[in-house]
Amino acid sequence: MEEISEGIRATSLRINDCPSPLPSAIASSATPQKHLKCFISVHFVQKLIAEFVGTYMLIFAGCAAIVLNINKNNVVTLPGIASVWGLVVMVLIYSVGHVSGAHFNPAVTIAFATSKMFPWIQVPAYILVQVVGSTLASGSLRLIFNGKEDQFVGTVPAGTDLQALILEFIATFYLMFVIAGVATDDRAMKHLSGVAIGATVSLDILFSGPLTGASMNPARSLGPAIVTGHYKGLWIYIIGPTLGAIFGAWTYNLMRLTNKSWGEAAKEISHSQTAIEVSSKDKVICNCGEGWSCVVSKTEAAEVGNIFFECAEGCICIVDETSTLKKHVYVYEKTKRRKSYKMYI
Questions:
Q1: pLDDT band for position 39 (cuts 50, 70, 90)
Q2: Membrane-spanning regions, if any (predicted)?
């Protein structure tokens, strides 16, 4: 414990259930069976259900407004459509944001993963349920409105492909920049995150909708395309939003407050790190081999969950519903660069 009291800095990975890129000392000792067990935990399945339901509701509500606008001689109007999309995003963030993070968007999921705020191992499953949810929502609308060919609710560029690509990049950059600011920065007023993100979606639709359809979401474009077989310009709505979200997240990370030197700050940004102190109040709960230990912070509260990390054979870091140990858990390296990894559960 004396080593911990020396003010070791910790690195925030902001992940759930399972770690993403782990230190080699830990990764080499974990078996595939353990990673599989962690990957299919009840908590993770709940997150997938939340993403599926949320994406379905998002696409159904937003695209229903478009269908009604087509059928009723533009009675909904562009501002009305923008309001529907923004409101449903806001409602869903407050409904399931605490369960899955309320991504509903492969571009957002990938952007979080590239910023080390989300584990890569969970990305394929998230994207799969998002696309399935969007496809089923689009199929539901097609059945309800008798599947008329002129009621395509997907996204097709009205101008040139280059114009659409640039606008989708900018709109998604704007959206992801706001998400990173209000939802991942501890200094932000997070109780207003849903309002800010929903308003950003509405604003993006107002300035880019007439030219691109304002997708900002590969799943939003893929679902209707799969149902109707209209794939014109689909690549724009996959590449543009994905790159825009990645650059939006990275740009905000450059602006995070730090008191480090330029060299330290650059290294910290590249790993999306948030420095915190590991103090003498913390407790080592198990030694994981090769100089690593699991450490529990007694100074910060954490959400409870299932087994989220197995650092070595026979060494499991766990915080569950029955445990009184409801605090943040770190993986602490005693030697080498003297870092610990803060695992959010």
A1: low
A2: 48-70, 76-96, 125-145, 165-183, 195-214, 234-252
